[in-house]
Amino acid sequence: MPAVTSVVIGGGQAGLAVSRCLSARAIDHVVLERTEVASSWRTGRWDSLRLLTPNWLSRLPGYRYEGDDPDGYMTMPEVVDYLCGYASAIRAPVERDTEVTSVRGDGDGYVVTTTNGEWRTRTVMIASGPYSCPDVPELARSLPAHMTSLTPSEYRNPEQLDDGGVLVVGAAATGIQLADEIHRSGRPVTLSVGHHVRLPRTYRGKDILWWLDAAGVLDERHDEVDDIERARHVASFQLVGSPGRETIDLNRLQGLGVRLVGRFAGLTDDGKAQFSGSLANVCALADLKLGRLLNTLDEWADENGVDKESGPPERYAPTAVPSDSPLMLSLSSGAFKTVMWATGFRSDYPWLQVPVLDYKGRVVHDGGVTPAPGLYQMGSTFLRRRKSTFIDGVGDDARELVAHMVDYLDEVVNVR
C-alpha cells in the first residue's frame, strides 16, 4: 500500500490549486481523479455555456489567463484546456481514472481506497466540488407521464426538447440562461422564480465582477458574516457570460416573451403545479439588495478616486412583476412538455466513512477545516470567501488550508 503525506481527491481547479500549494511546501501528495483533469467541465454542461467570470479573473496559484481576450468568457472546451495547461505547468501528480470508493480513519491518518488500490495518508483534502448531484425536489417524481423532466446536467441544447411549453424552475444564473436560450428556440417558456441575486453584467463601463473584485466584496471572509450557513445557500449571481456582455434579467426575459410565476411550491394529484404568491416580494427584495450593493460600489469608487475613470452611477428599473401571474398551472393539459430543474446541486459523499457529515449529508467544516484532524474540504460555496467557487477563489483558500495542514503536521503529527 503506497503512502503519501496528503491525498487530494479531485482534479479540478480546487484540487490543482491545492496540489500547487502542497508542492510549494515540499509536501508529497497525490491527486486522485476519477476520470481526467477538469472532468466536471467536460461533461454535464450544455453546449452554449460559458464562464460567468471574465477571463482576466481566471487566476490560480502561479498561473493566470494569458490569452488575447481578457474581457471575454471562456467556453467549456477553453476551460478544460486552461485547467489541463495548469496541471501540466505545475506538474501535478494526478492519478487519472482512479475513483475513490472509501475514505476511512486509520490510527493517526487515513486509508483511501480507490478502483486502483489503496493509499495510506496522514491528511486528506476533499476537492471533488459542490456540484456532484442535481438537487431535484421529490415532487419531480409525480409529474404527468407525458412530460420530460431534465436537469441542466442532462441538457445540451434546445434540439433535444420536445416541441411545446417548457417550465424552467429556478431563476439564478442557470435558470435565466436556459430560459433565454430555450425561448429563442421557439418554445414558450415559463420561469418559476425563487430567491435570486440580481446583477447587471456591466456597471459604469466595467464588468460587474471588476467592481466586486476591486472593492473587496468577493474577498469577504466566512468569519466576517453574521450567518455563514445562510450565506452559503444564497443563489448564484444572476449573470450570463456572452460575447456581447449582455444583461439578462427578469425584465429582459419578460420583454422577450418569457412568462414569470412564483416559486414552485407543490403539485396536485391531478397534475396542477402550484406556485408561491410571493413573486412580487421576492423581486422587490432582489431589487433592494441590488440598490444597496450599487450604493456600496459608488461609495468605494468615490473614496478611491475611481470616479474619474468610470462612467456615472447607474440605477435600474424595478423588476416588473405581472399582476396576472398565475398561482396554478395545469401540467397535464399537454401545453407543457418539459420541466427543467435549474434548482442547484448538492454534494454526495457515499465513500466518506469519517463522521463529519451532517443530517443532510454535507461536510461539517469551519472554513474547510473539518472536525476530523487532518481532513479538509476545498471548493464549496463560500468556503472561506465569497469567491470560493470561482476559479479565482480557490487559490487563497488553498494557500490558507495548506498552511493549516502544515501546522497540523508540524505540531500534532510531528512528521516534518
Q: How would you sum up this structure, described in words?
A:
With 416 residues, this protein is α/β, with parallel strands linked by helices. It folds into 2 domains: 3-132 and 347-413, FAD/NAD(P)-binding domain, CATH 3.50.50.60; 135-341, FAD/NAD(P)-binding domain (3-Layer(bba) Sandwich). The chain is built from 9 helices and 23 strands. It has helices at residues 13-24, 39-42, 76-89, 173-184, 208-214, 228-231, 250-256, 279-303, 393-413; strands at residues 3-9, 29-32, 59-60, 63-64, 94-95, 100-106, 109-114, 117-126, 133-134, 148-150, 165-169, 189-192, 197-198, 202-203, 206-207, 237-238, 259-261, 264-267, 272-275, 328-330, 336-341, 345-346, 375-377. The strands form 7 sheets. Strands 1, 2, 5, 6, 7, 8 and 23 form a 7-stranded mixed β-sheet that branches. Strands 10-21-11-12-17 form a 5-stranded parallel β-sheet, covered by helices on one side. The chain has a 3-stranded antiparallel β-sheet with strand order 18-19-20, with no helix packed on it. Helix 1 (13-24) crosses helix 9. 41% of the residues are buried. The model has no long low-confidence stretch (mean pLDDT 95).
The CATH class name of the largest domain reads: Alpha Beta
User: Cα-atom Rg, whole angstroms?
Assistant: 23 Å
CATH architectural group of the largest domain: 3-Layer(bba) Sandwich
Morphology: globular
CATH topological fold name of the largest domain: FAD/NAD(P)-binding domain
Number of domains: 2
Provide the descriptors you would attach to this structure in a database record.
seven-stranded mixed β-sheet, FAD/NAD(P)-binding domain, 2 domains, alpha/beta, five-stranded parallel β-sheet, 416 residues, 25% helix, 23 strands, globular
